[in-house]
């Protein structure tokens, strides 16, 4: 579980990285800039794992590769934004966030399941009589 400090720092990184992608370095990302779904920070605040949402990008692997290749420039642009707020600029590790595609796949699997309907109350064989109490123990008297 992350501490409050890690959560606050991760939130700061998420907001400022989004601004870096949209305003400072838009020339690195043709089309739409990548969305940042989550940022996880190590306890010493030295390493940040940035999970990117690349749903609208046709070739997400190529875009992720480009982002990783330009991680030094991204880190420098981030440093310009947060240098007065933090002591150490974290190392950025970028990962593809596939939770949305995973959720869509699980939705598809669940929709293809065949679930039989629940028994109707008209079935007298499965329901116990109303006046007779079910036995809880084998040696219980009737």
What does this structure look like?
GO terms for molecular function: ribosomal small subunit binding. Belongs to the RbfA family. It comes from Hymenobacter roseosalivarius DSM 11622. The chain has a single domain, classed as GMP Synthetase, Chain A, domain 3, CATH 3.30.300. The longest helix has 21 residues. A hairpin with a 5-residue loop joins strand 1 and strand 2. The chain has a three-stranded mixed β-sheet, covered by helices on one side. 40% of the residues lie in helices and 14% in strands. The model has no long low-confidence stretch (mean pLDDT 84). It is elongated and about 80 Å long. It has 142 residues and is α+β, with helices and mostly antiparallel strands.
